[in-house]
TrEMBL record:
InterPro entries assigned: Aminotrans_3, Aminotrans_3_PPA_site, Class-III_PLP-dep_AT, PyrdxlP-dep_Trfase, PyrdxlP-dep_Trfase_major, PyrdxlP-dep_Trfase_small
Keyword set includes Nucleotide-binding: no
EC number: 2.6.1.11
Alphabetical list of PROSITE patterns matching this protein: AA_TRANSFER_CLASS_3
Organism: Croceifilum oryzae
UniProt protein name: Acetylornithine aminotransferase
Family: Belongs to the class-III pyridoxal-phosphate-dependent aminotransferase family.
Record-linked Gene3D superfamilies: Aspartate Aminotransferase, domain 1 (3.90.1150.10), Type I PLP-dependent aspartate aminotransferase-like (Major domain) (3.40.640.10)
UniProt keyword annotations, A-Z: Aminotransferase, Pyridoxal phosphate, Transferase
A Pfam family hit: Aminotran_3
Length: 402
């Protein structure tokens, strides 16, 4: 074992099984480690570096804003944050407000508190949230309660707050008939749960039930948001019409690599929080917020969202061809845009072997739900990189055969 790996194991808690690699620098779509090896990054820091690494527009913003100050606290008016909030509202609920925090789990916490406070005044008989079985909403104590994966929550205290699980329309209807939940919260496409898109009819029916029963309809777009699936948020695709969430959770991609998250609330719930109801020292970081604006500039004004959508189409076509050639390995390609799950017939050990074989050949991919190869590529992925990945994956899969 390398010295640096030993030190990591000695001094940092073992909450993540790390790759034995230390990154020296990252540029564009590539990572370079301390030994000079280069990796095509199809993981992007778990879907954070949507524009690849050291994007010139982001670097410029970082220096410009960073020179002024790094932190001043939320006591002051914060022009970059105000601008970002205004843009996020304009592109989603049209009429509403944003609450900023530093991470995805914090966005979930804010949503839980907001839903709870809303129901206290608007629907006092209602309490609790319906979530999707196997969904993921974060690991802090409130958020982990909504994360319905036993290996993630089982060793920790369960808050006394009702949580209901559903995976079918019938289950949703049953819960709404027999219980009194205050909201639903779903990822439009499960991330950690295996890159599985919830059917459009299911989301529409959930929204309709919310309207019928006077509940809030919330979407966790922490992974699917900020261009990841080819539209700014995953619920906004033209072929998925009719979705109008009351609350949208975001994080990961928005800060361009710096911690930033939050919730967008429509007019119904924009003023639920009053002074002192919620907050955090660091957010909104003016630096993260400035980067957030730069991310939106590149995606929406410089056309990167559209370019990413086209690149994703090429990647999908290639992967579907590979699936047709090797159906004994690949069951299906799932997800949307640059959020892709290659669902395999293989064991967890084999999938983990594929990941390390790809790494040896200079390509970094992720694994979700043990047997799904998860790709969260940058929207800046080039055609040659797509071809290189497809050829290499095919080679690794064919090698497995022998
Ligand atoms: C990553 C993620 C979270 C948690 O975000 P953190 O920043 O890791 O706390 C919550 N929900 C979804 C859908 C995520 O992908």
């Amino acid at each position: 074992m390398k010295l640096i790996q030993q030190l990591d194991e000695t001094f940092i808690m073992h909450t993540v099984k790390r790759l034995p690699i230390a990154i020296e620098h990252a540029h564009g779509n590539y990572l370079t480690d301390t030994e000079g090896n280069t990796f095509l990054d199809l993981f992007t820091g778990l879907g954070v570096n949507t524009l690849g690494h050291s994007h010139p527009r982001l670097m410029e913003t970082l220096v410009e804003q960073g020179k002024r100050f790094l932190h001043i606290s939320n006591l002051f008016l914060n022009p970059p944050a105000i601008q970002l909030a205004q843009r996020l509202v304009k592109h989603t609920v049209k009429d509403g407000k944003v609450y900023f925090c530093n991470s995805g789990a914090e966005a979930t916490e804010a949503a839980i508190k907001l839903i709870h406070k809303w129901s206290k005044t608007h629907a006092p008989e209602r309490q609790g949230i319906i979530v999707y079985t196997n969904g993921f909403h974060g690991r802090t104590l409130g958020a982990v309660r909504l994360t319905r994966q036993p290996h993630i929550y089982q060793d920790f205290p369960e808050l006394n707050y009702p949580v209901f699980e559903a995976t079918t329309i019938e289950e949703l209807e049953e819960i709404c008939r027999t219980e009194k939940p205050a909201a639903v919260l779903f990822e439009p496409i499960l991330g950690a749960g295996g890159v599985h898109a919830l059917p459009h009819e299911f989301l529409l029916r959930a929204q309709q039930l919310c309207q019928e029963h006077g509940m809030l309809f919330a979407l966790d777009e922490i992974q699917t948001g900020i261009g990841r699936t080819g539209s700014l948020f995953a619920y906004q695709h033209e072929d998925l019409p009719g979705l109008h969430p009351d609350l949208i959770l975001f994080a990961k991609g928005i800060g361009g690599g710096l911690p930033l998250g939050g919730i967008i609330a429509n007019h119904k719930v924009a003023d639920v929080f009053g002074y002192g109801d919620h907050g955090t020292t660091f957010a909104p970081s003016p630096l993260s917020a400035a980067l957030g604006n730069a991310v939106l500039d590149v995606l929406l004004e410089e056309g990167q969202l559209e370019k990413g959508r086209l690149a994703a189409q090429k990647l999908w076509t290639g992967l579907q061809t590979l699936q047709a050639e090797l159906p004994e390995y690949i069951i299906t390609i799932q997800g949307r845009g640059m959020m892709i799950g290659i669902r395999t017939h293989l064991t967890a050990t084999q999938v983990s072997h594929i990941q390390s074989e790809l790494l040896t050949r200079g390509i970094l991919v992720d694994i979700a739900a043990k047997t799904v190869i998860r790709l969260l590529p940058p929207l800046t992925l080039q055609e040659s990189e797509i071809q290189h990945f497809l050829t290499t994956l095919r080679e690794v899969l064919l090698h497995l055969k022998k």
